[in-house]
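Hypothesis: this fold can be encoded by more than one sequence.
Test: take the structure tokens below, design a sequence, compare later.
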């Protein structure tokens, strides 16, 4: 005789469960409708453009001023001034100037002549047509460790921005046009990267950045002005000894247009501000509006008497 399998029956077993089954079906239907409703209101994700893995992928750090959002300054200026103070110089002062053709052919040689009587170590690294937006042509950030190792500067003088009015090349491929809102964010990050590399992890080097000067044309008026604003804001916000020479504003006239004439300091004579091409500044203008303001800051950083 086969043994019967023991089955434990509950109150739910048997014929009195019709109402329970109906309730379960209603509950399941309600859950299904809720899921469908939630899916209908869920936004479909879009595919973002490829970004630069080293400098363009992360959001900008919050600092005193962010691009397009000035925000609030630190509660006390004392902390900011402390961060901006140049580190002490031990031994012979060492200054390295880097940048595009403006630095290589005009500002740099001027600095070298003016610094010679001061017994300052000076080195010049220039590359014509270089910028921060075309690392495929010349990659300044990749050169910075070599420059630091070779020259051990106390102060960097940087002149970049004049050639950046063009599409920004991403390291992963592709490019972003200047009119694209993302351009400003990517460019600001590259300025930040240069500042970090220049001052060093210990914030033991000063940085003086000579901005682009104003030239004729709608592109300079719109894009050039924005480039100047971005560099200035990132330097103002940078938590370290970085200073800006606003050459763009200095080379605008009272009407806000690029200067065409100039009165040298100590004279009443009005001279042409630009060369025959109508773009490049005359030597005296570069000296008084770009080079000497940068050297004033450099001398302060290096602890050199100006007289």
């Amino acid at each position: 005789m086969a043994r019967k399998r023991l089955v434990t029956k509950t109150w739910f077993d048997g014929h009195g469960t019709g109402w329970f089954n109906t309730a379960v079906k209603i509950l399941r239907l309600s859950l299904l409708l809720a899921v469908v409703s939630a899916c209908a209101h869920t936004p479909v994700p879009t595919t973002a453009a490829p970004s630069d893995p080293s400098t363009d992928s992360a959001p900008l750090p919050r600092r005193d001023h962010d691009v397009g959002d000035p925000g609030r300054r630190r509660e006390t200026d004392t902390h900011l001034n402390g961060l901006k103070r140049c580190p002490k110089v031990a031994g012979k002062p060492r200054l390295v100037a880097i940048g595009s053709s403006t630095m290589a052919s005009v500002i740099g040689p001027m600095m070298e002549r003016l610094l010679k009587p001061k017994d300052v170590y000076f080195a010049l690294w220039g590359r014509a047509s270089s910028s921060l937006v075309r690392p495929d042509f010349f990659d300044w950030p990749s050169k910075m460790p070599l420059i630091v190792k070779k020259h051990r500067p106390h102060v960097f003088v940087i002149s970049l921005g004049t050639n950046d009015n063009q599409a920004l090349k991403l390291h992963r491929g592709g490019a972003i046009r200047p009119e694209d809102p993302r351009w400003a964010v990517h460019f600001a990050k590259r300025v930040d990267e240069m500042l970090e590399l220049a001052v060093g992890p210990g914030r033991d080097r000063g940085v003086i950045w000579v901005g682009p000067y104003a030239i004729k044309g709608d592109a300079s008026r719109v894009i050039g002005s924005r480039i100047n604003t971005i560099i200035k804001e990132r330097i103002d916000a940078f938590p370290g000894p970085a200073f800006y020479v606003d050459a763009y504003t200095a080379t605008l006239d009272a009407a806000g247009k690029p200067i065409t004439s100039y009165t040298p300091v100590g004279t009443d004579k009005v001279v042409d501000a630009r060369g025959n091409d109508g773009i490049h500044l005359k030597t005296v203008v570069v000296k008084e509006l770009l080079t000497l303001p940068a050297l004033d800051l450099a001398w302060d950083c290096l602890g050199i008497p100006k007289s």
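The beta strands are 94-99, 121-126, 155-159, 168-169, 175-176, 206-210, 242-245, 261-262, 271-272. Residues 81-302 form a domain with the Rossmann fold fold (CATH 3.40.50.1110).
Hypothesis status: open.
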